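Objective 1b. Sequence-to-structure analysis of Glucuronokinase.
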Amino acid sequence: MIIETRAYARAGLLGNPSDGFFGKTISISVRNFGTSISLYESPELHIEPQPQDGSTFKSIYHLRDSVSMLGYNGGIPLIKAGIKKFGEYCEGAGIRLPNRNFTVRYRSTIPRQVGMSGSSAIVVALMRALMQFYKVEIPLELLPQLVMTAETEELGITAGLQDRVIQCYEGCVYMDFDQELIAQRGYGQYDRLDPALLPKIYVAYNTQLSKVSGKVHSDVRARFDRGDADVISTLGQIAQLAAEAKKALQEGRPDDLHELMNENFNLRTKIYTISETNQQLIRAARACGASSKFAGSGGTIIGTYRDDEMLNRLFVELKKYNARVIRPFIV
């Protein structure tokens, strides 16, 4: 029997980037793009490499473009790290795994290097497959932490809980990463929100992946750790926007998210340096009358729009900046 599991792209609706600083966020899963894992029993444990895991290229330029778009290591290190962490979790929980091996392979349609969390989606889908294969149940609230440690502890990837929470829970989720709560039990407060409460939302991402780093280089973490008053205050204001958005949605005021999302990005610019490429996307979307902010660390923006006429304007205007506009499919 072949086990098939999936995990989807994600977009930060409000509150990011406060999630790595014990803040609050709202995120949505974007089912337009996903990663699938296929896993089946075999005599030995085998990870099937994909094209991005190979070391054979047509030319030096093919290698350059492959590394720019897919990174140096592809998905195999993520698969290895996830399997290792799964085994360690089971051992620590006193779960004895049967002597069964498997072959695993992955496929992904999540755009790379634009902040839609393609890497963590691989690990989330893998964990789901391993749980099915070994008939192990990992509590949902603990799963994001396990996924994150596979990336941070094993591979040295800088990562926060927000992406893993929304990919594990799916739909639309409000997250409160209260520091005391996380220190006490290892996870925050995660509340599902009905996606039907949301206003009309678009997502736009840069299609020239090789020109988008997907990484934000800044000293915000160091300043936060030093107790910098401006950074702490700004991140606190960003987190509060998520709380205000949750209340607005629950009270039937979805249109309030337009200004809240714009303010989210405006606050971000006070402590982060934003590249001109990303600034162009933000400005072009707002010129159409839509709201706009980063959906992650850069390369993808998200916002609200009024009607189909405005959405069509977004399609046309953002294409001028090599951006593709989609309406996120949220369940």
